[in-house]
Amino acid sequence: DIQMTQSPSSLSASVGDRVTITCRASQSISDYLSWYQQKPGKAPKVLIYSASSLQSGVPSKFSGSGSGAEFTLTINSLQPEDSAIYYCQQSYSSPLTFGGGTKVEIK
Amino acid sequence: QVQLRESGPGLVEPPQTLSLTCTVSGDSINSGSYYWGWIRQPAGKGLEWIGRIYTSGTTNYNPSLKSRVTMSVDTSKNQYSLRLSSVTASDTAVYYCAKGSGFPKLFFDNWGQGALVTVSS
After folding, report:
1. Which of B119, B118, B83, B112 is nearest to B6 (CA)?
2. Which of the residues in chain B have pLDDT under 50?
3. A52 and B CB contact within 8 Å
4. A106 touches chain B (CB under 8 A)
């Protein structure tokens, strides 16, 4: 199985900050990577697919980059509604696997 | 907009079989090059992919659960189902059904609200 490791596991930032979350795969996965946002009690919501493609309807403040084994999710101008847990997910090989999550809190 | 909804018992006794159904609305389950998946999440923990099924009936399961999982699809009802046998307390989780898109760079673009299943005697 491909292991997905996210860092940090949690962070606290101020309104208006730029936040970066990293996801590392245990082997190269090309750009077979997606990012999700999950708020308490809700299902995850896809933000980014194919490493850098913005899902329809998702604000452009979210962006993804990377290929191979290292990827980043960037949130620009952090707002209170961005408080959530963010997960990466690889689809390069089965079984599909998710990172452990990064909890983003607002200071 | 496709909507998904999980249904099934919220309590299952060990070592019985957990059964959930996902009802798809807003579009035919047969339309498009989609696959239909199940993901679970124990309370306070991360996401675990259980498996996926295509409307052709082709399945792909997580090896960690493969011996206990069966998925099926009923296109006439626009539904697909999950069965997980020989459950234990460690199978207690919120179970999500989700639509997969973007083949081959698969991602889940529509999710159900989730169904909490507790395994307890």
Report:
1. B112
2. none
3. no
4. no
